[in-house]
Design a protein that fits this description.
alpha+beta, 4-stranded antiparallel sheet, 13% helix
Amino acid sequence: MPLARFQQEEASALRPLDGRPPFCQVRELVRRVQADCAIAVDGNSYSVPWRLIGESVPVVVSDGQVRISHAGREVAVHAQTTGRRQRIVDPTHFHGVAGVARPVSVVVPPVTASAQPALLRPLAEYEQVVGGGWS
């Protein structure tokens, strides 16, 4: 009988776990980086460097962390959050995004007399039409 065999032979060999989980849970996923610079894991959103938008990235969820890699290099590490619909953001993932202040040089050519449009008629003709001159 299995229960009798367990109690006689195997139970004495077991040791207490001292609060440690009996195994290390590791999940390996693949996610696509969305237009908001994030991936979704368990209903939560984790930021990724903006240059990876549209790329598929491997994700490892283990020991309370979400680790994101690309081309064999780790690009983001976040603490795994509990709950749902939360957004975890690392501000450095948005450095260099369009709209970040940077010097822009705009060249405006100076207005010169030659750039002024020429009058089609002399002012005297306009004065005659309106009935008098400028006083």
